[in-house]
Design brief:
This protein is mostly helical. The chain has one domain. It is 42% helix and 5% strand. Strands 1-2-3 form a three-stranded antiparallel β-sheet, with no helix packed on it. α2 crosses α7 and α4 crosses α5. The longest helix has 15 residues. The protein is elongated, with a radius of gyration of 16 Å. Bound molecules: zinc ion (ZN).
């Protein structure tokens, strides 16, 4: 990987990274992860009460962000750190040690371990290897990459996290 690739602004800024994930996960616009409504069925929430990137579903009234149902869900690690970690872990052919990643990301070792664990879990999904062939062609790759965890979505919902815009990327560590 080149230094230029690591200069990607989406690796430095939580909002840019969120927009990056939104564009990949929702190529046709925001979609409710709970009932599948989209288009005019969802409303973007504005104002201080709502986290940026928060949407409300007009059909089921649940609020959501792009991270719901992905490996980033309910993590406090900023989204640009997630994106950079995913990039580094997938772009490094020889693999990357925890300490290397820790240094490159500038987050705690504990956060680094967490990221590696979650991202590797997503990377085990079928077809991940072939689809991840090119990070530069992420449109096809990222649905798998960020791993919508369909089998666990129900479980998460039952625990009642669906209210108040669950999901990762609050921008705080
Ligand atoms: Zn809905």
């Amino acid at each position: 990987m080149s230094a230029a690739e690591l200069d990607n602004p989406a690796f430095q800024d939580n909002d840019l990274a969120r927009e990056w994930f939104e564009a990949r996960i929702w190529p046709d616009g925001p979609k409710c992860p709970h009932c599948g409504s989209f288009g005019e069925g969802v409303t973007r929430m504005f104002g201080k009460k709502h986290r940026p990137g928060c949407f409300q579903c007009n059909a089921c009234r649940e609020q959501f962000t792009v991270t719901v149902g992905t490996v980033m869900e309910r993590s406090k690690i900023p989204l640009h750190i997630w994106l950079k970690a995913m990039y580094l872990l997938s772009a490094s052919k020889k693999g990357m040690s925890t300490h290397q990643l820790h240094r490159m990301l500038g987050v705690s070792l504990k956060s680094t371990w967490f990221l590696i664990h979650r991202i590797r879990e997503a990377m085990r999904e079928p077809f991940f290897g072939t689809q991840m062939g090119g990070f530069r062609k992420p449109v096809q790759a990222d649905e798998t990459f960020v791993g919508r965890r369909t089998s666990r979505a129900g479980e998460v919902r039952q625990r009642g996290y669906a209210r108040r815009c669950p999901g990762g990327g609050s921008g705080r560590l």
